[in-house]
């Protein structure tokens, strides 16, 4: 048991299969109870996409040496264990944007100005922001990261502002011409603060539970991982029985 906990981040095909099957099983009650099946399908697809993006981010960011099935199984099971989030496509849209923007920023180096990276990361933020606070926070975080990396210049800042301008002009045209009013931010169904709080809690638990066993493999990290995963499944199971 001690060896298993200390090396819990090592890829294991039987464990991966079990966790993936458990994750699939946790979606079945939602499909049986929910009337808006297309909404569940969209959220499920976004969850799968985010799982694949997380694998790539961990690999390209040097956190794992190879694409990790441990990361895939953990992320998939963690989000699947929370039935309250099985229709919250907005949460997964934001997470997808965060992962894409982070992977874009990974390409920065000191040999050229990060104009392309700043433009793409900002544009992604503009597209996936479902509420104004996420939009403003995302832009500030991108600029803050560029500042910390000493990549913020007038050209980089102008590239970021250009992405924001494109979003504003495009959305204004689509909205006021009546061509695509449903994508206007105010028309996106709003989530409750409880749903956002549960989303942040789930994301934090998965981040801690996944990173610790990889970065600092130890008995304590293995225990924390188990606590995070079991905690998510217990909370999700309790919510499912309501």
Order of helices and strands: HHHHHHHHHH
Average of pLDDT: 86
The portion of residues forming beta strands comes to under 5%
Unreliable spans:
none
3D shape: globular
Structure description:
- By secondary structure, this protein is mainly α.
- The chain contains ten helices and no strands.
- Helix 3 (37-60) packs antiparallel against helix 4 (69-80) and helix 6 packs antiparallel against helix 7 (132-148).
What is the structure about, briefly put?
It is built from ten helices and no strands. The chain has 242 residues and is an all-alpha fold.
Secondary structure blueprint with pairings:
Blueprint lengths: L1 H5 L6 H21 L3 H24 L8 H12 L8 H17 L9 H14 L3 H17 L5 H23 L16 H23 L3 H22 L2
Helix pairs in contact: 2-4, 3-4, 3-5, 4-9, 5-6, 6-7, 6-8, 9-10
Essential attributes:
mainly alpha; 242 residues
């Amino acid at each position: 048991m001690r060896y298993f906990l200390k090396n819990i981040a090592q890829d294991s095909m039987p464990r991966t299969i079990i966790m993936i099957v458990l994750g699939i099983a946790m979606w079945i009650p939602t499909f049986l109870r929910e009337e808006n099946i297309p909404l569940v399908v969209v959220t499920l697809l976004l969850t799968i996409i985010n799982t694949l993006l997380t694998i790539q981010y961990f690999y390209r960011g040097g956190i794992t040496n190879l694409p990790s099935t441990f990361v895939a199984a953990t992320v998939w099971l963690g989000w699947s264990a929370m039935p309250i989030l099985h229709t919250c496509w907005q949460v997964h849209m934001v997470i997808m944007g965060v992962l894409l923007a982070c992977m874009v920023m990974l390409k920065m180096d000191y040999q050229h100005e990060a104009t392309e990276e700043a433009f793409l990361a900002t544009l992604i933020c503009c597209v996936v922001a479902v509420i104004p606070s996420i939009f403003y926070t995302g832009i500030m975080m991108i600029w803050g990261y560029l500042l910390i990396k000493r990549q913020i210049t007038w050209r980089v800042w102008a590239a970021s502002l250009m992405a924001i301008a494109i979003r504003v002009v495009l959305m204004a045209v689509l909205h006021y011409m009546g061509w695509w009013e449903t994508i206007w931010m105010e028309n996106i169904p709003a989530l409750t603060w409880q749903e956002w709080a549960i989303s942040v809690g789930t994301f934090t638990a998965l981040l801690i539970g996944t990173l610790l066993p990889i970065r600092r493999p130890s008995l304590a990290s293995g225990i924390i991982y188990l606590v995070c995963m079991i905690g998510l499944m217990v909370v999700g199971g309790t919510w499912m029985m309501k």
